[in-house]
What does this fold into?
Amino acid sequence: MFSAFFIRRPKFAFVMAIVLVLAGSIALKALPINEYPNIAPPQVQVSTTYPGADAETLAESVAIPIEEQVNGVDNMLYMSSQSSQNGHYQLTITFEVGTDPDIAAVQVQNRVALAQPKLPQAVIRQGITTEKQSGNMLMVINVFSPNERYDALFLNNYTARNLEQPLARLPGVGNAQQLSQNDYAMRIWLDPLKLEAYQLSTQDVLSAIRSQNIQASAGTIGGPPFVHDQADAPRPPAFQYTLKADGRLQSVKAFEQILLRANAQGGTVRLKDVAEVGLGSKSYLANARLNNQAAATLAIFQTPGANALEVADAVYAEMERLGQRMPEGLAYDILYDTTESVRASVEEVFKTLLITFTLVVLVTWLFLGDWRATLIPAVAIPIALIGVMSVLFAFGLNLNMITLFALILAIGIVVDDAIIVVENTQRLIDQADARSLDRKQLAIDSMRQMTTPVIATTLVLLAVFVPITFMPGITGELYRQFAITLSFAVVLSSLTALTLSPAMCALLLRPSAQALQSPLSRFSPARPFGKGLESIRGAYVGSIAHLLRFPKTVLGVFILFALSTVWLFQSVPGGFIPPEDRGALMINVQLPDGASLARTEAVTREITDQLRPIEGISDIIGVSGYSLFSGLAANSAFMIAILDDWSDRTRDETQWYRILGRINQSLQAMPQANAFAFPPPAINGLGRSGDMSAQLQDLSGDSVQALAQTLRGLIYQANQRNEIERAKTTFSATTPQYQVSVFRDKAQMLGVSPERIYQTLSTHLGSAYVNDFTLKGRNYQVQVQASADNRDQLDDLKRLKIRSDQGELIPASALLEVVPQVGPSSINRYNLVRTADLQITPATGTSDIEAVALMDQLAHNTLPDGYFIEWTGNTLQALKANELVLMIFALATLFAYLFLVAQYESWSLPIAIIATVVIAFWGALLALKLMPGLTNNLYTQIGMVLLIGIASKNAILMVEFAAKERSGTQGRHARSIADAALSAARLRFRPVMMTSLSFVLGVLPLLFASGAGATSRFYVGLTIIGGMLALVLIALFFIPVFFQIVQQLREAWHRRFQA
It folds into this structure.
């Protein structure tokens, strides 16, 4: 027998255990720590700028050519783009989980290159960026001047020059990008009246700058080749000199002196005569503030697959180094850091792990009543938990919330094997003659009885978990890491139970009577606890004896439980991943269409002043002119409310959802803007927010106004439903605009091309990127634009003049028709189709899945032909996960059943074991049902999969023993079916209760979780405790009766078959 070798050679068993612990300890040092497995779908972003283009022009000339080429790239899940009113275009391609982001980026870049010949030259000159990155910000660095010595322009450019590049080079950083990008630029502010006075056109100015601000090479003097093959050839030069040309202009004064015109009399017109020249900002589209103080806001994005904690640690270390170089009056702070919640969550889970271990050991001591016996399972726990670290390292996994959950739950499971070995060996020692006690032989006899149950319970757990490791997608990856961790922990536990535990039993165990005489045990609570347990066992066995006489009644009650379980499955709302306390809340602000950036800044300052006094909020980061949903827009703002540390928010009033409610209540009272707060996504990279995300697609080709009207109708219908707390959008098609049309025939007759007309308009009213200049070792753009007072009224168009082919200056107003209209501030596209974004917040008690079904029904009833809803982001992943739920439960149950069939060589006997799973599910779902607002989400489903294994494991302990009693393989004559069931109930009640209670108390700390990551721990704890209580209080009464019913049917069938 396998265990006999280790019982006779205990040092061998100890060496094996020590090697396992050492290997696990070494692996533990090397394991990275993250919040979740790498489950966020990889993303690749394509971005460019078309200066002066409106959203519709940008969509038609840039978005369509690029997206037609990118569409269908390998493993693409979906793509979405945004064409902003300020000429900025961004395309995000989301790929299937598991796609190599490097290969995906290369493939996208190759396809973008195919579209370049179809793009405007202005776009190609600006450049097209293709890069991989995570979909969400990892952290935000705020650079500010405490004494307000430096202005926003300096802060932004100091950050760009000194921080962006070093941080972008760090391993794992996908991008370091300012949310308010304000690089230096040489700004040339034209005065149209002065241009007209000097008879100059916009094209004259642009040509002069291009011809005089150039990067030139002047060659060398004295360089080879030399003339030396002639008699009168001069001697070769002794020295070689490089000629250095002035090249690019480098100062404001130099640009002011650019010559625009000169005549024979020496008269000159220079750039300073028609324009103001100064060092300004490349863009004036967005401004960032920290607590209403000017700041540069630098967002750090990690690369897909990078370890978030390692990246954050590298950023902190680099900022510590770079911060020492900052001049006096400059400081930085990192207030928004998503890894803070990760660290806090992992720390809380480690605390839970320690508490769970302590509780399990105490419960084991209460049952066994002897510290020697308690030591055996107490040693088995760390061997399994530490040993499994080497397995995680070998599989390339990391320590995250899922694997740590598996370790917490594994404590209650791995102790089971050691407990049943100890309990059975102790029973044999107590029954043996104390005068001829051979503990080694008794340990061997015990393992002859227990080897099969230990292996069977282990294999049934493996049968439950191994198949689900092959499930696809995000759900499959989460289950895979959970299943691998738990499965190998159980395998190591079983190995310990078959090797070290019996060896320690032979060395440490003694008769219970002798143990009770020790001073430590004499006053131990284990003695009254043991007496109370014996009383409970007596009552339990009496109840079983009574129930065995009414099997049909018991079966009828079980059918009622099964039907109520089905009802609970249908009535408990489904969900994906519940929101967590991430230590920050997001705010989106949208002013009326056409509102200026100055108005937006005023509103963000007012919001900051209103929100900062709210208890639980420490800081407010605000970016005016930028929205998380609509990108760069003058009438939008994005704000982050930084919450106090979790340790400082222990009261109910300071929980994140309470603060969220107070923020929204305050924002709703502001008439100046439509603003709302929302939680970050539960998992970084899965959507922009914790709300449900959808796209309303327009396949009909209607106008943007028709799309907006249809969207407003759908939102109105959704907000009338009690199941929806709020339906909202940032899309608008009512931004005030002017349609500018050229009188082409007239322009042609006057010798003015439409291209020249639009170039003049774009330069004066937008901006023209001419070329570059160098400042402090970096290249910056030279931008030409009309001064502010010459482009703030529609009448300013009358001041613009365009030179004709004949050299005359023609008023632009004579060639243009300007008609007021409204249009979109940005145009979104989703999978090549024009769309409008839609965010849904379900009401309390309504799950995401129910809200999706409701919105789909509303869309079917209210949307006109050609309009459809497409779910995206975290909602799309939730729908994919929901499709797999029943399949996962079915596979886990089926494989457990098939294994038991192979174990017992019977198709019917495993039914007595698997039937208890129904009771476990009933208890878990009832616990969720009794607490309003809870959902059957990914965490509860993980707990329910585990309950399949636990329920089967407990039932095996009884059914296995009853089957042996019936067949007479326990050293006795065969018993009747009822006597065999009753004997199994009597003898296996104690180990089943011991393992079940230790598991329940081991999970109990999860139920009282607080702080970061508390929601996930609570869901797992509630589900498992609900299921385990049902198993202990209800299923234990069904198992012997199930065995009786199934065994009677088996034997009746066999008799009929033999006859």
Remarks:
- The chain has five domains: 1-30+369-520, 41-134, 136-216+246-340+753-818, 524-571+906-1058, 583-678.
- The chain has a mean pLDDT of 84.
